[in-house]
Design brief:
By secondary structure, this protein is an alpha+beta fold. Helix content is 49%, strand content 16%. The chain has helices at 4-13, 56-65, 78-92, 97-120; strands at residues 18-21, 24-28, 35-39, 45-47, 53-54.
């Protein structure tokens, strides 16, 4: 957890989607936009999809090279999705029919995003 705040600050400043899980952070790979993992102890990272790897210094160098970078995909944070789904379900149990239909569609979209995320992992 030594570099947790440094990494969070870097990802936030660089507008890279990320989330924490235990001693590691997951973020969107700068090469393929799939899920990569970085150690909060050593800052060593690796993308399981494209195989690129390095450390925080290499990520900083890549960001400097890709100043006008655009992201076409969004990294899904499973814990956040779960909490949003639970919240929608709580509201759904209390609302009238018209609002229930809209909330069910939103819930279906979130579940589809989670399904797609885990199919690609």
């Amino acid at each position: 957890m030594k570099y947790k705040l440094v990494l969070a600050s870097f990802f936030k400043e660089s507008k890279i989607t990320y989330y924490f899980y235990k001693e590691e952070m997951f973020f969107q790979c700068l090469f393929c936009e799939e899920k990569a993992i970085i150690s909060t102890k050593t800052t060593m990272w690796k993308c399981s999809a494209c195989g690129n790897s390095g450390n925080l210094a290499s990520l900083i160098a890549m960001i400097k090279k890709q100043e006008n970078r655009t992201v076409s995909k969004r990294l899904i944070n499973p814990r956040k999705q779960k909490n949003q789904i639970k919240y929608i379900l709580r509201i759904l149990m209390q609302e009238e029919q018209q609002k229930k239909t809209r909330l069910i569609r939103l819930l279906q979209k979130k579940l589809d995003e989670l399904w797609d995320h885990f199919q690609l992992s």
